[in-house]
Amino acid sequence: MNLSHDEELLRRRFSELAARADKQYRPLFTGFLSPPEAQWALQAGRQARVSVLLSGGYEDAERQMACFSPDDEPVDFPFSALSLIWPHQSAPGHRDILGAAMGLGIQRHCLGDIAMEEDRAILFVVDEMAQHLCDSLTSAGRVKLQTRLLDHLPEIQPPEGRTVHDTVASLRLDAVVASGFGLSRAKAADLIAAGRVKLQHLPNLRTDVQVSEGDSISAQGLGRIRLETVGSPTKKGRIPLTLLRYGEHKH
After folding, report:
1. How many of the other CB atoms lie within 10 Å of CB of 211?
2. Single residue among 100, 121, 149 that ends a domain in this structure
3. What is the distance between the alpha carbons of residues 121 and 147, in angstroms, rounded to a whole number?
4. 3-class secondary-structure state, position 17
5. Which domain does 201 fall in, by range?
6. Which residue(s) pair with 191 in the sheet?
7. Does residue 251 fall inside a structural domain?
8. For the chain, how far is it from start to end, CA to CA, in angstroms?
9. Where are the alpha helices (DSSP H) in the chain?
């Protein structure tokens, strides 16, 4: 695998953190990581034989902070949550909020997910930048914001979706994508081959990779599905599934 200079430096940094966590017998943290970077952190932990804990502030967070730890004890991750509220007649987009935060000089690894809710957004940020961002983030695009530093991490409501019950011949990615999005198996395979499908937030070009309970799958332009339950095979050998589909584009 050919890595860029920055990627090589980051992977080396993870290896150093993992080794230090073991030697100093204390937890050490990264900033917020993209899904591929989180996988590198997990790999560094395995090589150093230390635990790697991941958290983004809520279940299914895309950007997560990694903790290299000499044991499996729970840790308090050093990040906070900001509540962003705007006037009812206007709402900023995700990109507007991210751009406004980075325009204040906040680097990307200091910012976690931006969870968009109906009347507010929750922005996760490393502790050392939280108060600065709370004081300075007063607008996003042309939308005025009321920004408040929360005392504790909020409960992020899961996205509204609809439940899909189906059976599949196997738990291959193409079969589950076809089932969850109501596509033919061939169309699902085409989407995967085109790089338009992500499994657990990571692009996956293999149609035959196995999907497990709890896995999240997104397909560009179609929304997301999560595999909720896998039942026992039927007499005909098909596997019952319960899927949650959300983020559908309505026409």
Report:
1. 25
2. 149
3. 10
4. helix
5. 161-246
6. none
7. no
8. 41
9. 5-24, 35-48, 94-102, 127-136, 173-181, 185-193
Domain count, the chain: 3
Q: In one letter, which amino acid is 189?
A: A
The single-letter code of the amino acid at 54 is L
Residues 46 and 88 in one domain: no
Q: Counting every residue, how long is the chain? A: 251
Give backbone dihedrals phi and psi of 31, rounded to 5 degrees, phi first: -80, -170
Query: Is there a contact between 247 and 181 (Cβ–Cβ < 8 Å)?
Result: no
Report pLDDT digits (tens) over 188-232: 999 999 999 999 888 899 999 999 998 889 998 898 999 999 999
Tally helices (H) and strands (E) across the chain.
6, 15
Tell me which residue of 162, 158, 27, 136 sits closest to 84, measured CA to CA: 136
For the chain, the farthest-separated pair of C-alpha atoms sits apart, in whole angstroms, at 62
| Closest alpha carbon to 211 in 194, 190, 237, 192 | 192
Whole-number Cα distances in Å, 226 to 88, 154, 208, 215, 241: 31, 22, 18, 6, 10
Q: Reduce the DSSP state of residue 58 to 3 states and report it.
A: coil
pLDDT tens per residue, range 177-191: 999 999 999 999 999
Q: What are phi and psi of 84, to 5 degrees?
A: -115, 120
Q: Are 202 and 209 in contact (CB under 8 A)?
A: no
The pTM (predicted TM-score) of the whole model is 0.76
Q: Which two tokens stand for residue 56?
A: 């983004």
